[in-house]
Amino acid sequence: MTDSSVAALRAASGPVAPTRVWDLPTRLFHWALAVAVIGMIGTGLNGAMEWHFRIGYSVMALLLFRLLWGFVGGRWSRFGAFVYGPGSLAAYLRGRAHPDHLVGHTPLGSLSVFAVLIVLVLQVATGLMADDEISASGPLTRFVSGDIVSMATGWHKAQGKWIVIALASLHVLAVLFYVLVKRHRLVQPMVTGDKLVAPAANGQMAPSRDDAASRWLALVLFGLCAGVAWWVSSLRV
């Protein structure tokens, strides 16, 4: 959000206030996934397959956690907070977005989030069933037919890989555009968790829950997801 935007919000709705938008588990997930995806791309391109598998299992655990956290996490991390209809997207593109739609993920940003999650889930799933017939095969290859292994391998090594690279690059470029050109503060809220938000019509905008209890819940959930990923990895022979 730019200084001029803050001034406009103050003029229209009263003083803006820092509001907890991104809870700590969501922030840790975001940065951990970014590092893991970079590592997954790098190891895949360089043929470091053992590390590629290890990082892939980490991505699997993170994705499982985010899918669960999308239902029980903080207010603005829940999927219900950023599932928008075509009308909301059209209004946002025309510059007439509802104020609530600018707090967490915007309508356009939500499309990016869901696209990344869907593509990464598909890439991890196909990786688990892929076999390069040289030195690396996924832990689930022996449980599916040869035709499925062939399709999974083809997608994982070709289309899937380049779609992940394209989405990651597009995400970085979009963030740079909003930060450098439109002067929106996108990175800081994902570090501190807080965002300057104008009061809602019926009072202060509801913040995300981010207390000790919710953080312990997130830790337990991630532990379970990591356990599932470890179990899947143990199936590899």
Give a quick rundown of the structure:
With 237 residues, the chain is mainly alpha-helical.
Could you characterize what this model shows?
By secondary structure, the chain is mainly alpha-helical. Helices cover 64% and strands 3% of the residues. The chain is built from nine helices and two strands; from the N terminus they run H-E-H-H-H-H-H-H-H-E-H. It has a two-stranded antiparallel ribbon. Helix 5 crosses helix 6 (146-157). The chain is globular. The protein starts with a helix and ends with a helix.
Give the arrangement of secondary structure elements:
Elements: H1 3-13, E1 17-20, H2 24-45, H3 49-72, H4 86-93, H5 107-128, H6 146-157, H7 159-181, H8 187-192, E2 194-197, H9 212-234
Antiparallel strand pairs: 1-2
Helix pairs in contact: 2-3, 3-5, 3-9, 5-6, 5-7, 6-7
Low-confidence stretches: 1-13
Strands in their spatial order, largest beta sheet: 1-2
Rg, alpha carbons: 20 Å
Helix fraction by DSSP (H/I, runs of at least 4): 55-70%
**Tell me, what's the shape?**
globular
Biggest beta-sheet profile: 2 strands, antiparallel
Strand content: under 5%
Compute the separation of the termini in Å: 51 Å
Number of strands: 2
| SSE-based structural type | mainly alpha
Helical region count?
A: 9
Output mean pLDDT: 87
Order of secondary-structure elements: HEHHHHHHHEH
